[in-house]
Amino acid sequence: MKLSLSKVVSGCRLGTLTNLGKNGVQTMELPGCLLYTKTGSPPHLTHDTLQAIKGVPAVVQLTLSTLVELHEVMEEYKEGIGKFIGMPESVLYCSLHDPGTPCPPGYNNNKTVSIWGYGGRMEMTASKFMSMQRALQPDWLQCLSDGDTISGETTRKRAKKSVDRSLSFLDECLQLQKKSPELQGSVMVGVIEGGDVLEERLRSAKETAKRPVGGFLLDGFQGQAMAKETKLKLMASVTAELPEDKPRLIHGIGKPDEVLECIERGVDVFESFFPYQVTERGCALSFSYNYNPDPEAAVIKQNGIQDAGKNGTEKDINETSKADPEITLFEIFLKEKRYRDDFGPLVHGCTCYCCQNHSRAYVHHLLVTNELLAGVLLMMHNFQHYFSFFHSIRDALRDDRLDQLKELIFRQAL
Amino acid sequence: MISLQATRATRNHMTVPKMAAPKQASRDSRAKMAAPSSCGPALSLRVVAECGLSKARACELRLPHGPVLSPVFMPVGTQGTMKGITARQLEGLGCRICLGNTYHLGMRPGPELIKQANGLHGFMNWQQNLLTDSGGFQMVSLVELSEVTEEGVRFRSPYDGEEILLMPEKSIEIQNALGSDIMMQLDDVVSSTVTGPRVEEAMYRSIRWLDRCIAANSKPDKQNLFAIIQGGLDPALRTKCLEEMTQRDVPGFAIGGLSGGEAKDHFWKMVTLSTDRLPRGKPRYLMGVGYATDLVVCVALGCDMFDCVFPTRTARFGSALVPWGSLPVKNKQFAKDFRPIDENCGCPTCRRYSRAFLHALFRSETAALHLLTVHNIAYQLNLMQSIRESIVEQRFPQFVQDFMRTMYGSQERYPPWAVEALASVNITLE
């Protein structure tokens, strides 16, 4: 894996990762996002419907929590998780936890980290963890780490422990990797912990950077426990300690405004669970990322910003269902009565399969009747919209228009 | 037992008002192909080939949204969607006609909205053919909620408790709004396990409702109204119904009131009795039949079109259909089975995914349902295509032999009703 930076603008890094994957020929543009999967499948999608989406990322995120029950199966299969899930050509990153489902706190200790699979809690020692990774054979893997600092009320002591344990796990896993022929081509991603304690964060960053890792994960920034100011300050401090030539990943950040904030603080790679969450609440991403002045004004009027602003008003809600309180201003809730006879696409100008072939009225009908196709079409739209957003970030950086994009996005977040 | 020859002669002499007599294809249809015969302004049928032994035939139907080759299986997309698969995926599998349901769509989103959307084709963006059921079957399946009178069927809506009266005229009005290529009459449906005077009442009422439906069809030039033969398991009632309904000027006929809980022995006899008396030049649609063996046998008995929720429903319950039965991939035994569902199946699911992966996925991901749905639809459509090819190539009886052996393994396992039914059309299983 090789990272080439073409530009750094206001803390944002524009670049490319090359020599990725088993054949070393894949590339990923930065800043970028991963393709979110559960049990190795993008939610609701088959290979065919995934292929119909434009801009699908080259790197796929697998989560250990949704795959952990397949340990024995994968050991017998022997050919690696990529082939098993029908993605033999993709670059695979295996993270510990599924971003959608936060882990109950209090279960990690010096020797083990708990992973929450479908069957319940599984305790992972470094040894068991690496054994699983040998069976999966991902291209990148998040090292076993103790990120249990996000539930709030994390003491300094606990923050220190998260760093100590994670470094210890890293050293042990790196040793085990040396002895694993199956993992010689895999990149270990070092995990930076430390809760909300600056000192610990810096220690974690410096120490992790000393190890031969291929990239860094800024962990523990998920959730609501940390104040935004603190979060962003810590992020900037951490990335300042990290080498320029290795990618910085973050988990748990998905909203467009938050993504931009992290990019400004030196983060390169994000997850794409956010479009999935939007899908699950029956919504379609509708925010504009088209920072070119006048046409964009018309688009905003047509699409989300007016609609989104009125999400969940009493008179609009279909009485058989209430809008999810998590709904953001970046999306429209298609179950609202007003979409019942709206024959326009989800988002005007969107080139996704759903917008090219179906209407808001049809998706509304599918949601009201609880039909499976609703999830399929919304996921296709939401993924494409999100991937296009990242494309526009890269374009804005290239064109020196980041400020315009920021202003556009933040305006829609109000 | 009436010989096949005589039966065909009888059909030739039946009067069917306002229809040009179909050109007679010789029994040796390899030599000459029949010209398409018009069944109505919106449907023509051409008999491409006939099996020399049984009553099987391969046809080409021309419908407003394109040609359909028969025998054909029509997947069921009740609420204007083929469950989790997109219109493009369905088309990609070779489907050229599928079903929507008047009762469900009439409730949600309702005919006015669908009309605004340019019909059901426009609403779901399906550019191939659509067949809509009348809402009649829901009388049987939702029987606690319904009451039948001469006027129509009274339902209590499960969604809002409101009472609805579905009259033949209303059913046709909704179907006209849906714009389906084939519409079904509203029939008085009685469960096939019911006996007694109710069956006769329902049969006669269905005839009267057929006439009301014909009168109510505002788009006979674009939408084909099919009659539905009733009469339960009573040969006399069925025959009477056939006599009457075949006198009406409809483009096609369905055989209804079967594939409920009745014994297979009675089922096949009613099917063959019906096809004996239906015109050769019009399509025969056997409603609610979809199990592989039933399809093969009923093709042999002279049916052209079939529909059933079974393949798509069983997919969502974790079962994949294969030539030798079905694989419940959600079961533990498949956890480490790294083969595709069927190594001879070329569908998108079998080309890329293993049973083990589908098993793992099924526990928590809807994608598993979609993958299995794709495979099961491919299985059904491939089966029909194989049947059709064998008829065209004059080897249908051999196809049946091979099919039965693959499905059941050995002769002792063949279902007796199937053996009898096939024997009745000169296919003796070895």
Automatic annotation (TrEMBL), chain A:
Assembly, per entry: Heterodimer of a catalytic subunit QTRT1 and an accessory subunit QTRT2.
Co-factor remark: Binds 1 zinc ion per subunit.
Any one cellular-component term (Gene Ontology): tRNA-guanine transglycosylase complex
Function: Non-catalytic subunit of the queuine tRNA-ribosyltransferase (TGT) that catalyzes the base-exchange of a guanine (G) residue with queuine (Q) at position 34 (anticodon wobble position) in tRNAs with GU(N) anticodons (tRNA-Asp, -Asn, -His and -Tyr), resulting in the hypermodified nucleoside queuosine (7-(((4,5-cis-dihydroxy-2-cyclopenten-1-yl)amino)methyl)-7-deazaguanosine).
Classification of source organism: Eukaryota, Metazoa, Chordata, Craniata, Vertebrata
A GO MF label: protein heterodimerization activity
Species whose genome carries this gene: Chrysemys picta bellii
Similarity annotation: Belongs to the queuine tRNA-ribosyltransferase family. QTRT2 subfamily.
Superkingdom to which the source organism belongs: Eukaryota
Name of the protein described by the UniProt record: Queuine tRNA-ribosyltransferase accessory subunit 2
Keyword line: Cytoplasm, Membrane, Metal-binding, Mitochondrion, Mitochondrion outer membrane, tRNA processing, Zinc
One GO term of the biological process aspect: tRNA wobble guanine modification
UniProt subcellular location: Cytoplasm; Mitochondrion outer membrane
Binding site for Zn(2+): C350, C352, C355, H381
Pfam family, one: TGT
Topology of the protein relative to the lipid bilayer: Peripheral membrane protein
Main localization (coarse): cytoplasm
Cofactor (UniProt): Zn(2+)
Domain tRNA-guanine(15) transglycosylase-like: 12-412
